[in-house]
Write a structure and sequence with these properties.
Elements: E1 15-19, H1 23-35, E2 39-43, H2 46-56, E3 60-64, H3 72-82, E4 87-92, H4 97-104, E5 110-113, H5 118-138, H6 149-154, H7 161-176, H8 181-188, H9 214-221, E6 226-229, E7 235-238, H10 242-265, H11 270-283, H12 289-296, H13 299-317, H14 319-327, H15 334-348, H16 354-376, H17 382-397, H18 408-419, H19 426-433, H20 436-451, H21 463-473, H22 479-502, H23 505-517, H24 523-527, H25 531-549, H26 552-562, H27 571-585, H28 591-609, H29 613-623, H30 635-643, H31 656-685
Parallel strand pairs: 1-2, 1-3, 3-4, 4-5
Antiparallel strand pairs: 6-7
Helix pairs in contact: 2-3, 7-10, 8-10, 10-11, 11-25, 12-25, 13-16, 13-23, 13-25, 13-30, 14-16, 14-21, 15-17, 15-20, 16-17, 16-21, 16-30, 17-20, 18-28, 18-29, 20-31, 22-23, 25-30, 26-28, 27-28, 27-29, 27-31, 28-29
Length: 691
């Protein structure tokens, strides 16, 4: 028979290892598979098979369960230790339901009796080869296509040597170039208390003493002072030089560049990049070890961890389906989901925690997606899952401008207003910001309807009906659901009424403890959350602290402003430039840190140029909600990314590339709607602030 060459993704013959102690059977089957185009290796015992697996890396193994010496199950265990991605087809002449059950405990792809029809075996081998791709993704094993230098440099997800090399070059270049004069000027300027001075935008300006420089303040905070002991035993502390602090600031800018590059391209696993941020901060002495650890353990990070675990508990009880019926009851089609649910969600996110809303709704939409593709008889509908989940997180993001209660960034801006003697009531903020929210949500909905109209395979998606069917599957509410609902109400009350005192992380951790005491949440449920996403957000928080404390964020913000043309430094132009700067920075830093860095710079600029500082401050706060492009931009994105995985294959359904591509488009739309509908629209019609 002619060699048909069955290939894998590298255009090489699919490598199959045949393990059987019956020589005649093994040799005959190996010959038949070779003639069918497979690259066949064979072994008569488990010991030899382990050596072949170690050195020749077969993709599929056909394993006889009954063998003398090391039997099939022992061999299987050793193979999985060495190569967890290898797919094993258990082949035995002693097949039984019991043996299938036993081997099934050890991750067998399929179970076939020996002998079986050759065509059936080949069909299983091909299916196993497909599953191996998913297994490699689950185990973070790179699958590089081809052997050329170009392919090696480009690499694959989580293994891109070329990008890693580029990141190293950019980092070292940033660290060792001379410090910009403006940066050293900022670092050495003394605080006078005049809020219009150049360093008023420093994130910790209010904590500095009069006459103190950023060098002195940060040097003391990071314990960079050197101690000198005189002959008389007197110890004096000397502040570090400005060059040393400028070096730390350049390190943090380099960290920002590398982290953004690696997260955007998937050069290494997300969690590894998150660890790299801390490693660089440790070894370049940005903070002492205890402070680096503290920067990673901010309240927002505890909140992310808690919400992911809490969402798992809600899903476990089935309460998420009940919530889905209430929230998605009108979404009888994708069009209604986009045009009705999206603005309702965005407006709700203006007054309640958008992070909590996303955490509760994302699992429901995943259920809708999985049920829809199963009913349609297809394996995947990339367009549908991306549309459902990205529309959710983007609409939750843009709820921020709606009211002062929409997030910590707004509280930061209220503090800046207070510093400058500007007051704004809750109602005034709502009047100036809420009209933006539903219009922007409808714009996002229209974008997804237009862009994905041809990309979605399943056109008839009744979200409400699917959620209702999921609810009917579990029958009436159980005692566990009532318990979970009570805890959910408790956490919402604590978030709404006491988050200013106990933060956002404290209440959700308390509720995790209660859920465990009530017998709903187990520790293994917590172990199952996406820890890489928690690590990612922790690293983003640490990076924000480092950028702000070293003065790097202040320099970045001023650099953006300094390159602006004159018409963007006053009036409506200043509102536009402020929102653009904030919108860009907030994709790389936490929204609160961004507002803290940009607001104190632009608010006094407004006063000096005769522009309403209230308008400029609100423009800054509003744009800090536009963190659509990167997972690190907001907890909403991190939560959606962590939940957007195929429960069967482990495949990441919504990727970082999806966030960047569609997030960039929605970011541009957000800026356009803010400028046209708000700055040149209803603000002028309402006669607000004279812009």
């Amino acid at each position: 028979m002619e060699d048909q060459k069955i290939t894998n993704g590298n255009n090489k013959k699919l490598k199959v290892l045949l393990i059987d102690d019956e020589d005649r059977f093994r040799e005959s089957l190996a010959k038949q598979l070779s003639l069918r185009g497979f690259d066949v290796l064979d072994a008569s015992n488990g010991e030899d098979a382990i050596k072949i697996v170690r050195h020749d890396n077969p993709e599929v193994v056909i394993l006889d369960q009954k063998m003398p010496g090391m039997d099939g199950i022992q061999t299987l265990k050793e193979i999985k230790k060495l190569r967890p991605e290898v797919q094993v087809i258990m082949h035995t002449g002693h097949g039984s339901i019991e043996s299938a059950r036993v081997t099934g405990k050890f991750d067998v792809f399929s179970y076939l009796e020996k002998p079986c029809a050759l065509d059936d075996l080949i069909k299983e081998i091909k299916a196993a080869a497909e599953e191996r791709v998913y297994a490699m993704a689950r185990n973070e094993i790179p699958d590089v296509q081809g052997t050329s230098l170009k392919n090696w440099l480009i690499g694959v997800q989580n293994a891109r040597p070329g990008i890693i090399l580029l990141g190293a070059i950019l980092f070292l270049t940033m660290v060792f170039i001379p410090a910009p004069q403006q940066l050293t000027d900022f670092l050495s300027a003394k605080k006078t208390g005049n809020l219009s001075e150049s360093i008023a935008g420093y994130a910790e300006y209010q904590k500095m003493e009069k006459g103190q420089t950023i060098v002195e303040y940060y040097g003391k905070k990071a314990k960079l002072y050197t101690k000198t002991k005189a002959a008389d035993g007197k110890v004096t502390k000397t502040a570090p030089g400005v060059e040393k602090i400028a070096f730390k600031a350049k390190v943090m800018i380099g960290v920002l560049i590398v982290a953004a590059l690696f997260w955007a391209t998937g050069a290494v696993p997300i969690g590894i990049t998150a660890l790299l941020v801390g490693v660089l901060m440790y070894f370049f002495g940005v903070f002492p070890p205890s402070m680096v650890a503290k920067a990673y353990a901010k309240d927002s990070v505890i909140f992310i961890f808690g919400v992911l675990a809490f969402a798992a508990a809600i899903s476990k009880t089935g309460l998420d389906r009940r919530i889905g019926i209430l929230l998605l009851g009108t979404s009888t089609s994708l069009r209604r989901f986009a045009l009705i649910f999206a603005p309702l969600l965005a407006v709700t996110a203006s007054f309640l925690s958008e992070h909590a809303l996303v955490a509760f709704i994302a699992p429901i939409l995943m259920l809708v997606y999985m049920g829809t593709i199963q009913a349609a008889g297809i394996k995947k509908d990339k367009g549908l899952v991306v549309m459902l989940l990205l529309m959710l997180t983007f609409c939750a993001n843009i709820g921020g401008p709606g009211s002062p209660a929409a997030g910590g960034r707004n509280a930061v801006m209220l503090g800046i207003f207070s510093d400058y003697g500007i007051s704004i009531s809750f109602g005034q903020w709502v009047k100036m910001g809420l009209p933006f929210v539903p219009v922007m949500a409808l714009t996002i909905a229209t974008y997804f309807l237009v862009v994905f109209r041809k990309k979605i395979k399943v056109k008839d998606v009744n979200v409400a009906a699917r959620v209702k069917r999921e609810g009917e599957k579990i029958g009436r509410m159980t005692l566990d659901e009532y318990k979970a609902a009570a805890v959910l109400i408790l956490v919402i009350v604590l978030w709404v009424g006491f988050s200013d005192k106990v933060g956002m992380g404290g209440p959700v951790i308390l509720c995790l403890v209660l859920l465990n005491i009530l017998g709903i949440l187990r520790w293994k449920d917590i172990n199952g959350i996406s820890w890489d996403v928690v690590a990612l957000y922790a690293a983003a928080s640490a990076m924000g602290v480092g950028l702000a404390s070293t003065g790097a964020a202040l320099w970045l913000a001023n650099t953006f402003i300094s390159i602006l043309p004159d018409f963007l430094r006053s009036g409506t132009g200043l509102c536009m430039s402020t929102s653009l700067i904030t919108g860009i920075l907030t994709n790389f830093m936490s929204d609160g840190a961004t507002v803290a860095a940009v607001g104190p710079i632009t608010v006094p600029m407004a006063t000096l140029s005769g522009t309403s500082p209230l308008m400029v401050g609100l423009a800054t706060a509003f744009a800090s909600s536009f963190a659509h492009m990167l997972i690190i931009g907001t907890p909403n994105n991190a939560i959606v990314y962590s939940l957007a995985k195929d429960p069967e294959t482990g495949e990441q359904l919504v990727t970082m590339k999806d966030f960047f591509v569609h997030g960039f488009a929605v970011f541009l739309l957000s800026m356009a709607v803010l400028w046209i509908w708000v700055f040149f629209g209803y603000w002028k019609w309402l006669g607000i602030g004279g812009v």
